[in-house]
Design goal:
It contains 30 helices and 23 strands. By secondary structure, it is an alpha+beta fold. A hairpin with a 5-residue loop joins β19 and β20. α2 crosses α12. The two termini are 27 Å apart.
Amino acid sequence: MAFVKDMLRMWAHSWKRFISIAMITLLGVAVLTGIYAGCRDAFRSTDRFFDAQGLHDVQVLSTAGLSNGDIAALRKVNGVAKVQAERSQEVTFDLDGRKSATMQEIGTNGIDQPYLQEGRMPKKAGEIAVTRKFIRDSGKRIGSRLTVTPESASSDTSDTNDTNGADGTNETNGTDEAPSFPTKLTIVGVVLDPQNLSNPDGYSAMTSFRSTATTDYTFFAPSDGVTGTLYTSATLLVKGTAAESTFDESYENTVKQVTDRIDGTVKTDRQKARRQELLDAGNKKIVDARAEADKKFADAQSQIDANRQQFNQQVDQIVSMQAGAAAAGAAANGTNAGAAAAAGATTPQLDETTRETMRETIIAASPELTQAKQQLDQAQSQLNEQKASTEQTLKTKENELKTSIPQVRWYVQDRQSLGGFSALKSDLDSIQSLGNAFPIVFLLVAVMMSLTAMARMVEEDRSLIGTYVGLGYGRLAVASRYLLFALLACLIGGGLGLIAGFLGIPAFLLVVLQGMYVMPGLRLEYDWLYGSLGIALFVVGVLAATIYACVQEMRQTPAALMRPKAPRAGSRILLERIRPVWNRIGFLGKVTARNIFRFKSRLIMTVGGVAGCTALIVCGLAINDTVADLGIKQYRDIYRYDLMVVSDDSDASAMRTKVASDGRVTSSLDVRIESGDLTVAGSGDGDSGKAGSSGSESIQLVAVPEKHLSNLGEMVTLQPVSSGILGTSGVGKTGSLKLDDDGVIVAQSAASALGVKAGSKVRLTNGDGVQATAKVSAVNRNLIGSDVYVSETYYAKLFDSKDAKNTKNSKSSKDSEALTWNAMLAKLSGSDASQTDYAESLEEDSSVMKAVSCAHMADSFKFDLMGAVVALIVALAGGLALVVLFTLANTNVSERVREMATLKVLGFFDREVHHYVNREMMILTVMGVILGLPLGRLVGGMLTMALNMPSLYFEVEVKPLSYVIAAVATMAFALLVQLFVNPVLDRIDPISSLKSVE
């Protein structure tokens, strides 16, 4: 019992060490669990939301649309739980200019169901539900009416129909028709599209303009009133995925098994079957056309034959009359009247030659008969010509049918191809990667500080330890006094750290995340396993340091332990050997130098602890500096143009005329801009970027006219980049990169995220959904957005454009206009404010789809999520620095109580004692800061390896002011600690402190 009481008394006496260990554990556990818990809560809430709304696992698209046969084939794939055929149509409407939207049918099989936020779901024809983004932009509300106009080619499906039909109609066969939606609409609800969780009122509304060729909004309509049996896409749910997290690798593997099955057999078979359906439909139309033509020709021939028969009968009648009259006259000149009477009663028999001669003579003698014969002959000739022409046309169509119908292509995509899903996953993964890296520093510092504190605690009790061991107490029992002390401190600190890690930090992060994404049903959850392991990690580290300190002392005999520890043998430091310097240092300076460099463990612990904390602060400020300069670097330095204007293809000419007539443009470049995807399939062969890399990135595909390839460098800074060590990148000389017809230039932001480099092969998807494998000729420096630049010739080669030919040597303006240049990059005159106002005024024009001012984007670009993480890291790093300095200062004082008492006996005033002790701590702090500043820059350089975010590349930069702030903050913490240490120095009693232990 006395042993326990003494142990509790010892614990109470060492309360400062207890608080230090508890605080370090609290901060470490909070950092370890906090960022992880915030990201995990976001992951789980979105996963539950996706399951509740039935977000598709796989989506199948086709260049020729999908038929009922395609849907039936997909249902038979092993592993497919549900298949939903979907119809959609692109429409336009007037909203401060021409805007576009996708009319999306609400599926009836529970897949991709919109989440109702306000009002009710549409049920009848003409009712729609819209997104909050549309409500915000349009100012409309529930009950408002809207009239839309279907586009002439409202989807890829209808485009295919227009070209595949044998007779040019919008049908691919006798029964399949493109989807058609009502045009007079009434808003009855506001919904959230599960495929895009971006918050229209948050950060997503401030991001750069990327998707230029897609529709502006999505309208959801019920099946009532929708016509057409041809489907735009098919969405699938895979068996077993509902029980897995959509962000886990196991989910991706499960889905990949199904997509591989579709790609392996169903895709190839149905592509051939669908094309055969189109061929059969074309052949059937040709056969029907031939049958119809034959029937018409037969009817016409019958009519001509009837008329000719009537004409011949009339002529024959005249011939008979003339022949009879001639015979009667000859008989009248005969011998008797009886013979004349007999001759008059019988028509003479004429031979064929005579009859034909008489017919021709009669027809020639009669203008009416001549005209009638000519008309009959002309009608027969025209009919024969029509027969020959029609037969030739049908034979030509038969010959051209196979070449006019292209090969049908299927595109099998998973959730990674959804821009909203991949952006959310990448954001959370990047923040979580920071949460996995920083706790390592906290753990190392915790072990170092625990070793320092517990080693000093054991050393102070060495005589008591020797007494207990001498009295027969086991070494484990004696060591338990310190092990339980450290364990209790870790458990209390870890418990408080779990509260902060699973409640405080996640609540802070989720507030910021909800400003970027809409996450219905978000709630904070506790992870027992991860929380327990987090505490266990720090408990093991601190207990290991405590065991090491106990073992070091308890290796000695009880007699040795009960005697005071022999002072360290005197030794010279390196500075003493430099006589010119050493001789000029005062007495107290020499004492300080010896104290600092003779005690290596204290030097290493103090400098290492301070350096680690300073590095964390620098790293946090580096993130802040990097994010703060992203907008300026991108929109001031990389983008050299001032204005981007995008229009619909049909309004491209009017848009250019409008901009030219305003007189604000000093130079411009016409380009074609489409939204698409860049995909890398992990093959590990080195051709697709780094081995094993995979993923998809939404891109802005920029096609440049062949004649103006050299002008691209005037609008965009072209600088080749190459990967360096520790996440850095080498940037080539400005202007050394040229766009040619041998490959595409990929933005650094996309290349970094997907592991793409010069020479890699990637799969590009253009605005029409057509995919092609392209070679990456270079990677261009780019921080925001994912631009891919391609020449006009290479674009035609990739996507097999029917209109775009090899225009490299083209001279005519007609050839140079093979592609529709729907966008313009322009340099403007005037101030930044006037350029921003001009861009806003252009958006009001009906011919302009979007106008973006680089000056406005540079000023308005923000990244709230990373700013919040920076603030959190800097705050925690500052707290760690304060605790570390406090622990080291108290340990330093406790080790040197007799020294401080001696100084007081020698006549040192309290202020001089303060200066004597604090000077050493300040010098050690300065040394730690000097080491921590470059260390922080080194850690900051690794950020680009950890932060692979869609359309963002972190070109790490640390401003000089950040170094100053980190140094000043650490020194300020050191000065603050002095305020706590000085009273301890004042309370040292020289008499009791100098008593001999013996």
